[in-house]
UniProtKB/TrEMBL annotation:
<protein>
    <submittedName>
        <fullName>Fibronectin type III domain containing 4a</fullName>
    </submittedName>
</protein>
<dbReference type="InterPro" id="IPR036116">
    <property type="entry name" value="FN3_sf"/>
</dbReference>
<dbReference type="InterPro" id="IPR013783">
    <property type="entry name" value="Ig-like_fold"/>
</dbReference>
<feature type="region of interest" description="Disordered">
    <location>
        <begin position="117"/>
        <end position="136"/>
    </location>
</feature>
<dbReference type="InterPro" id="IPR052120">
    <property type="entry name" value="FNDC_type_III_4/5"/>
</dbReference>
<keyword id="KW-0472">Membrane</keyword>
<feature type="compositionally biased region" description="Basic and acidic residues">
    <location>
        <begin position="175"/>
        <end position="196"/>
    </location>
</feature>
<keyword id="KW-0964">Secreted</keyword>
<keyword id="KW-1133">Transmembrane helix</keyword>
<keyword id="KW-0812">Transmembrane</keyword>
<feature type="domain" description="Fibronectin type-III">
    <location>
        <begin position="24"/>
        <end position="117"/>
    </location>
</feature>
<dbReference type="GO" id="GO:0005576">
    <property type="term" value="C:extracellular region"/>
</dbReference>
<dbReference type="GO" id="GO:0005886">
    <property type="term" value="C:plasma membrane"/>
</dbReference>
<feature type="region of interest" description="Disordered">
    <location>
        <begin position="175"/>
        <end position="204"/>
    </location>
</feature>
<feature type="compositionally biased region" description="Polar residues">
    <location>
        <begin position="121"/>
        <end position="131"/>
    </location>
</feature>
<keyword id="KW-0325">Glycoprotein</keyword>
<feature type="transmembrane region" description="Helical">
    <location>
        <begin position="147"/>
        <end position="165"/>
    </location>
</feature>
Amino acid sequence: SPSNCHSAGLTDLSLAVYSPPDRPPAPVNVSVMHLRADSATISWEVPEGDIIIGFSISQQRQDGHMQRFIREVNTTSRSCVLWDLEEDTNYIIQVQSIGLYGESQASKKVHFHTLKKSDRFPSNSSNQDDPTVQGLDKSRHLQTGEMIIIVVVLVMWAAVIALFCRQYDIIKDNDSSNNKEKAKPSSERSTPEHHSGGLLRSKFHPSVPSINIIEV
């Protein structure tokens, strides 16, 4: 009947609307890097072709005690740093991808063992790629560069001050010598006048005998 066809059409439509979409695939190649006594970095990969908007990580100790569940969305990160871990302890982690229509299945379990605080970090480990270590190295380089710049600036200022003092001494000496030259001619002018006056006085000195001419 027509009513039966109409009801069948509604049933097919409802099944098409409410059919659950596919969940994203589970992360692969989950690994632990930069392992320390109280922290570790977890990294993973996501198969291409799926839109991933976040991740979730479950962290528990080897004895089964659940410690932490981390969930982040609106991120494309493929790594996460686990802090506040206990030293010399076994841990198990699993990672899930968060897609537009839900979360993926959990990845394979990954086991790792934290170091002791007394243990030294391996010199050839991947800590060279650790952003924290790189940040420390960069800060050291910046501090060294800043110190060099400060020393160079101080040396330049010292050279400028020394040059200024030297020029000031030269100008001061020139001024004093010019003042002496200006004062010298005035004293020399007074001396000839004194001598000339003396000569004049000696020329007409009364003690010099005079010659009288008598006409015959």
